[in-house]
Specification:
The complex is a heterodimer of chains A (114) and B (112).
Chain A: E1 5-7, E2 10-13, E3 19-24, E4 31-37, E5 43-50, E6 53-56, E7 65-68, E8 75-79, E9 88-95, E10 104-105, E11 109-113
Parallel strand pairs in A: 2-11
Antiparallel strand pairs in A: 1-3, 3-8, 4-5, 4-9, 5-6, 7-8, 9-10, 9-11
Chain B: E1 4-6, E2 11-14, E3 19-25, E4 32-38, E5 45-51, E6 54-58, E7 61-66, E8 71-76, E9 85-92, E10 101-102, E11 106-111
Parallel strand pairs in B: 2-11
Antiparallel strand pairs in B: 1-3, 3-8, 4-5, 4-9, 6-7, 7-8, 9-10, 9-11
Classes of the chains: A mainly beta (114), B mainly beta (112).
């Protein structure tokens, strides 16, 4: 009965590199959400995806960030040309269809940009 | 002004005490109210979920929602050292149930 899985758990990148964060939802969940947690701040919504569809990306920065949830495989959050300000914990959550408010979170990926 | 306000603490209580954690919010459209527990360097764990106003009890935990005051609470009875964590309130429903808005969290320390 695996929960939400994220990898890698820790990721170090130099400025200008790309970061790819992966998320596999709980079994039976078809909806995925990404949140970012900056030090001393609360979790901030980034994007909500269903299989092959972006439903709400109102929290995504306009540039360098993208997300996908393909028909097969995990959801990917991609950050191009990372900057130091991207250093944060990125959490993925999932929910079953029809229960979008009950979201179960993964352990997070901690991104450090040098 | 933040949509959701939460006292960051830290809140330190002795083992066995009753703990009261609170959040206030400004958006009257919120309908779903959640409490998460987050241990250091871990992901948030869903503790309680309430729809609209009222109380909900689960073991040692009780969640209360007062929509007229825009105020929600989480009570922990017979607190244990293992309850030491950061508690996050979250809410949604302002146009969409899927976009959770979180408080910044209250750090709780239960001492022996």
């Amino acid at each position: 009965n695996a929960g939400v899985m994220q990898n890698p758990r820790h990721l170090v990148r130099r400025r200008g590199q790309e970061a790819r964060l992966r998320c596999s939802p709980m079994k039976g969940h078809s909806h995925v959400y990404w949140y970012r947690q900056l030090p001393e701040e609360g979790l901030k919504f980034m994007v909500y995806l269903q299989k092959e569809n972006i439903i709400d990306e109102s929290g995504m920065p306009k540039e360098r960030f993208s997300a996908e949830f393909p028909k097969e495989g995990p959801s990917i959050l991609r950050i191009q040309q990372v900057v130091r300000g991207d250093s944060a914990a990125y959490f993925c959550a999932s929910s079953p269809a029809g229960a979008e408010e009950t979201q179960y979170f993964g352990p997070g990926t901690r991104l450090l940009v040098l | 002004q933040k949509e959701v306000e939460q006292d960051p603490g830290p809140l330190s209580v002795p083992e066995g005490a009753i703990v009261s954690l609170n959040c206030t919010y400004s958006n009257s459209a919120f309908q779903y109210f959640m409490w998460y527990r987050q241990y250091s360097r871990k992901g948030p764990e869903l503790l309680m979920y309430t729809y609209s106003s009222g109380n909900k009890e689960d073991g040692r935990f009780t969640a209360q929602v007062d929509k007229s005051s825009k105020y929600i609470s989480l009570f922990i009875r017979d607190s244990q050292p293992s309850d030491s964590a950061t508690y996050l309130c979250a809410m949604s429903g302002a146009g969409t149930a899927s976009k959770l808005t979180f408080g910044t969290g209250t750090r709780l320390q239960v001492t022996l």
